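>> received
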Amino acid sequence: MASKVPIGQRDQMSDDPSPDVRLPSGTTGRLLASIGNLSTSLGAIHSRFAQHHDLGPRGIWIMSWISEGHGNPGAIARAMILPPSVISGDLNRLTDRELIVRQRGAADGRRLVYSLTATGRALLAEAHGNYLDLLQDKLASYPPEQLDAMLRMLFEISRHVRTHLDESER
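>> returned
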């Protein structure tokens, strides 16, 4: 039976409570902490919206991929680094909610292609609007050249990490 330890004390649950097991110092540690904090906060906002609209944990992301032209289940699964069976269940949920529609591909009738319904587009616009409302003014407070540099670096770091995903499973 698991002990009930308050969330704020979960570091005390570790097998190695040694205080020297911390994030790396310097730039890498600051990057990990910053991205972790931002990801956690944005994830909480995302989860609240998704839960309120019964979208499941990946519904907004899947709808976003579809809106960007990635309507094939295999492409969505690869983009989200998830098994196709997981994405299939999510696509069924969104289809049942009439947020997306399923069609056979024009060139290959065996291939399924998904697109957003008008209701799905409106809901996705609302979700994206939440992020715009939250971030737009803050981002506007930085000089454009700093934003461009930051976005370029984050994209390059993301791409670098993604290319090493297979290596990290060893």
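>> The longest strand covers residues 100-104.
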